[in-house]
Amino acid sequence: MSRARALSLLGLAEHLEGAGQAAEAATCRTEAAELARAAADPSALNQVALALEGAGDLDGAHALLVAAHQLAPDRLEPAVNLGNLLRRLGRLEEARTVLEAVARAAPDHPALNHNLGLVLAELGRGPAALKALRRALDGVAGDQPAEAVVASDLGAVLKDLDRPAEALSLLRRAHALAPGDRRIATQLAGACLKALHVAEAVERFEALAASAPDDGPAEAGEAWSNLAAALIEANRAEDAIAAAGRALGLDPQAPGALFNRAVARLLAGDWAAGLPEYGWRWRGAGAARYGRAPDLPTWDGAPLAAGQSLWVRGEQGLGDHLMLARYLPLLADRVAPGGLVIECYPSLTRLLAVLPGLAGVPLAFGNPAAERPPPGAPAQIDLYDLPVHFPTTPEAVPGRVPYLAAPSPGPDWLAEVEALPRPRLGLVWAGKPRPRDRGLPLADLLAALDGLPGSRVALQTGPGRAELARLPAGRRPFDAGGRVGDLADTAAVMARLDRVVSIDTAAAHLAGGLGVPLDLLLIHGADWRWLRDRADSPLYPSARLFRQRKERDWEAPLRALRVHLAGRVTEDSPSIA
Fold it and tell me: Regarding the domain delimited by 2-205, which CATH topology (the fold level of the hierarchy) does it fall under?
């Protein structure tokens, strides 16, 4: 009787909700929950829990699902629903425990594997998540709606794992199965962008923005913001600013749209507006990437008291640290009589330690001391906020160049570099492959330099060094990159070179900060720091830029580089500056 009455009340609640009688519907659901508990019926508890969850009562739904699972721990439906609800509540480890336990009895259940895969993905257990989601996809084959959902979720996980080609294939499949599903269409457009199918990504985000429902401002705002991100990658800064503006017209405080507008303004050269707005990187989806000390105030620009230090929080990549190091002496002069305490990558500590105004050796990321405010530091500031306090535009970049210097003594093998015939060209040909592959084949770079006098010095570190072994012995440059211990060693080598030829990596920022002549090879859609359509850089007066005009095409920039160097190199010249 209790079970039947509980289910009857659920039907009445649905009717009342449809009639606009929300309070009465909630009363019916509460009574249904009490009757399901009295009946101690797992099926009734499960059904009432789903109704409560649908009405937004997650705590009430959780209590009933726990009761149902305890009564019948091997029954699939309550376990799957409990795991899914725990995931919604952010209790991922509990969700994993529940789902893995029941999976041992039903290893091929599609809904179970689907939910388990999503939980594992959010826990960062990529391989296990892929295994569960692939099992789920096999289990729903032929069920078109379910197949579309699982394929799209599997594609999204592959995208997050930097496997864009596989992600794109699955998301195209999901979109073909459910062409009207906006969530899947958005995921597909994002995968196109990740795979550098930029034109297609722009087209798909444009379609999503144009078709957003009139009564769905959140969906429309997301579509316009995503379009702005794609337009940035397409090097269309003004269009990106306009798209972000459309998103902000719907939600003036949307973090993603504000951040995208900031990047678009920076790319367009409007650094005065873009740099302050770049602070939105700390809001929304990207905020969790970087650790901060929430209990320490952000520095407001006021001078500190005698003996106090300012904590400068490192962020983003090596190149960002090197570019922004120019502000540290200016900051120390202005506000910190007790010096600056800076945290950075371990490979930077020796190089940055010689900058004026630092309070001792920088703290390396991962050092337990970097996880709490240092003594005497009443405030913190993030590296990318420094240009806001020292106004920076392409026409006026504060500080002097060079602002970096190699600390002494250098490595004991520098005499071997000094003995090489001049001019000496340092070479860097590969950076991180994600989010964009900025590398070019070493053989192609060397071919562009054939016939020019002097020595070639490999500065490359990391996986790109594998290309050296594939060259004939007589073609291999002098290998300094395999012998350096950190960027201070690299700086010492660069100081003995006549020029550095590099793609967009930390090495390029290091050469620029040292004032070493730099020839910089840039991908199409390069970072905002290099602006657009310029052959020079306001950040580094010693740099000359050579840009791709289309994706993955190095032929034109390498040809221009050769012409540039050939006009400056002679057999008798000690330098090609």
Answer: 1.25.40
